[in-house]
Specification:
Blueprint lengths: L15 E3 L1 H5 L5 E3 H6 L5 H16 L5 H29 L20 H26 L1 H16 L13 H22 L4 H24 L1 H7 L4 H5 L1 H25 L14 H12 L3 H28 L1
Antiparallel strand pairs: 1-2
Helix pairs in contact: 3-4, 3-7, 3-8, 3-13, 4-5, 4-6, 4-7, 5-6, 5-7, 6-7, 7-8, 8-11, 8-13, 11-12, 12-13
């Protein structure tokens, strides 16, 4: 593993470069530093619950395109803001070092300065807030409360006096905010209701979003342990974290099955079972690999699974 430092590059190349990890393994992937810091592979975690919550609204006859577009925009902006904040905080705390086996981090490698990243965080959350104002106008003070709590929670993940992402609470945060809050909150915007189908769908979305984080933390467990970042993979060990990952991924399918059996979700929601083949490769890889590139593939594969799962669940909801 090595990192190309900006001092080794012409000034014009600092913000447009090839990811050293990708170059090392033969891939051609020129990326912009801001795009790299936004961590595109994680963005499906923000889009998936919006898709599902909006499908539930459409099935109830209350869907509107303006709300959908603004919710999706704001959700993606918050996710990018979280990723920027994580990049900044991990660099400051020494969690992103040259021994790390994951993708290049912008601040740790000097591709972006801490000051630039702080401004990027402000822009990302500022854009989310602008979208939030429209949603508040549509749905009232509950959305204001959700927005404030979500941004505070996002900033506190790896920042603040007690960065809970460093104390084994990251998965819980993701489950609540990228599962329950995102799905139920999306559904609430359309007609100010939070029916049971939104909560059950939110549990499934939360499990898959949390699985993405578990995959990330399994990959980084060695360097996180050295840096004092006590994720669940560090606290309990890599093997228990692997089993947790498998339980979360398979649990999302089980939740839909239970919801259908209870009559909370329509039978066509079982279309999500078509996504089961996408589970095989990530689960097998996380149990058999420790190297960086395969485990990066697990993270990306889980994000892809969540997006496909959400799309199939949305279709199943809309068929009814």
């Amino acid at each position: 593993m090595y990192y190309t430092r900006p001092a080794q590059l012409p000034h014009s190349c600092i913000h447009l470069f090839a990811d050293p990890l990708s170059t090392q393994y033969g891939a051609k992937l020129p990326v912009n530093a801001w795009l790299l810091a936004s961590r595109p592979a994680t963005l499906p975690a923000a889009a998936a619950p919006v898709i599902v919550g909006s499908a539930l609204a459409a099935a109830s006859g209350v869907f509107r395109w303006d709300a959908f577009i603004v919710i999706l925009f704001s959700a993606l902006a918050i996710q990018v803001g979280v990723n920027f904040a994580n990049d900044l905080a991990d660099a400051a705390k020494g969690a992103d070092t040259e021994t790390r086996i994951g993708p290049t981090r912008a601040v740790a490698t000097g591709l972006l300065s801490a000051g630039q990243m702080k401004r990027g965080i402000m822009v990302a959350f500022g854009l989310a807030a602008v979208g939030g104002l429209y949603l508040i106008w549509l749905a009232g003070w509950v959305i204001l409360a959700i927005g404030i709590v979500s941004i505070i929670a996002a900033l506190g993940y790896t920042n603040g006096p007690v960065p809970y992402g460093y104390y084994g609470l990251g998965e819980l945060f993701v489950f609540i905010f990228f599962g329950l809050v995102a799905t139920v909150g999306t559904r609430y915007v359309y007609d100010q209701t939070a029916p049971a189908d939104a909560w059950m769908s939110g549990i499934a979305m939360g499990l898959l979003a949390s699985a993405i984080l578990v995959a990330n933390n399994v990959r980084d467990s060695d360097t996180d342990r050295i840096a004092g970042k006590r994720t669940l993979a560090v606290i309990f060990g890599r093997n228990p974290a692997r089993w947790l990952y498998a339980a979360m991924v398979l649990g999302s399918f089980a939740i839909v099955l239970i919801a259908v059996m209870l009559g909370t979700l329509p039978p066509w929601s079982l279309l999500t079972l078509l996504a089961l083949p996408l589970v095989v490769s990530p689960v097998r890889t996380i149990f058999t690999e420790t190297a960086g590139p395969p485990l990066i593939g697990v993270l990306k594969g889980t994000a892809r699974l969540q997006l496909v799962f959400a799309a199939l669940l949305a279709v199943g909801i809309l068929i009814t």
